[in-house]
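Appendix B. Extra example for self-study. Work through it before the problem class; the solution is given directly after the inputs so you can check yourself.
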Amino acid sequence: MKKLKPCPFCEAEAKMKFIGNEHTKSRTIEVKCSNSECRVTMKNGAIRFGFDWLEDISIKAWNRRAKLKPREVLIERNER
Ligand SMILES: [Zn+2]
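Solution. Structure tokens for the complete assembly:
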């Protein structure tokens, strides 16, 4: 099973919730931070595709981390 990275804000464990089923046409996956003081939530929905596909894109989206550039570089560029 693929694993979710911890919450990008507080590093608490992330949990995944499946909403809907194969009989209903809409399926939603909610990835949620388990820290009640943080409450970061990411939702992904699908109509035509099943939970396998949705789980895959949800894990990829949650696990993606932006590579932030140092702020000084951006300021230099703006001054040119
Ligand atoms: Zn969190």
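Self-check: The mean pLDDT is 88. If your reasoning did not lead you there, revisit section 3.
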